[in-house]
Write a structure and sequence with these properties.
The complex is a heterodimer. Chain A is 62% helix and 0% strand. By secondary structure, chain A is mainly alpha-helical. In chain A, helix 1 crosses helix 5. The longest helix of chain A has 23 residues. By secondary structure, chain B is α+β, with helices and mostly antiparallel strands. Chain B is built from 11 helices and 5 strands, in the order H-H-H-H-H-H-H-H-H-E-E-E-E-E-H-H. In chain B, a hairpin with a 5-residue loop joins strand 3 and strand 4. The longest helix of chain B has 14 residues. The chains are: A mainly alpha, B alpha+beta. At the A-B interface, helix 1, helix 2, helix 3, helix 4 and helix 5 of A face helix 1, helix 3, helix 4, helix 5 and helix 10 of B.
Chain lengths: 177, 250
Amino acid sequence: MRDEIRERMVALLPRLRRFAFSLTGNAEQSDDLVQDACLRALARIDQWQPGTRLDSWMYRIAQNIWLDRVRAAKVRGEVVDIEAAEGIVGSDGRVVTESELTLQTVAAALARLSAEQRAVVALVCIEGTSYKEAAEITGVPIGTVMSRLARARRALAAVLNQPQLPPNARLAAKTGS
Amino acid sequence: MTTAGEKAMALVDGRLAPAEVPQLVQELARSPALVAELQAYLTTAGRRMAEPFEAKLSEPAPAWLVDAVMRSRAAPEAASRSEQPLARGVRGLLGWLQRRYPVPAWSLATGPALAAVLVALGMWLAPAPSGHPSIADASLGLALERTESGKDAPLIALRPVLTFKNKTTAWCRQYELRYAAKQASHGLACRSQGGRWEVVAATPPAAVGPRPAGSGPRQAIDDLVTAMMIDQPLSRSDEAATIGKGWSHL
């Protein structure tokens, strides 16, 4: 059974790496996070109920490890690397359109969110989980997920749509088509 | 679903119950602010956030990561990205560390930075017969190792970084030792019942300088702290109170 679980984890690696990257914003850290999550999952495999979703369980483990690290870093007073958070405005100041959301842009915008907000955005907007699944993975009530997500997405919209024009020339966000 | 804004978000995500749509439309008709909020959600709706990550999804996972999953516990050290597997003596130290402080094995198998820590452990802890050195012993040892007669030792300062309780409820602290010529080492020490601070792990001194987050020997100490502590590190005020009480347990 254990070998089968390992194979399933390997099959999940692309999604786990994508999730970890959206949390950490850094390729090396994200792969370390995925490794730690897989090793913890294997060590605690008896806690996983066969028949339930392995991917949700692993997302949960990964985000818990990451949140622990972020909180410990805060207590240590470590300065967050804000280089990634700058330089996200489109070079000509236009409102960001659909084709212009690059990986760098999104990663920099995500870096500005709190850890908890980043986790729900990563789950719902990138991994495509439902609100309910996100609530189960993060271990908070669905209402908390909704409000956290709403605040995070309003903040992201403000950052992603921010032109370099003077404030009175700012355009409203384009509606999707 | 509580607020109109959250319903607007659910609408944009295609997740609003059909029965709730008519009322939301009426609210949108009455409220330009709600319309603006809905427009904001459109920025991150659909595949717009996910599309930039598609390339990440189709990247093949690195071989070392696949190995780590398929062969963990058997040889996680060999599966790490380090080019040198941990020495046999260091594996013995891993065992000692687990017996002395209940640290789960998975938390110790995390790659080349930890190897540097464990080599440093070997430097300070073996083969002392009567237990492990105190902070004073460790920095004294280093000073004697490296300082010429007639010159000042390079140790400048000890700076604690955080305080926590480990799983046997001993007080532990992560610290940094700073030396001349912009060198520093990082360590973790725990307080015995008798009030003696004993080094659990420490890195050899290395140049301080810009380093990508999450790399280097400091990361190994960070990982060890995360693995060993119960709950969270102490807040500044709780730490001050604990120091004031002479580290007595409540």
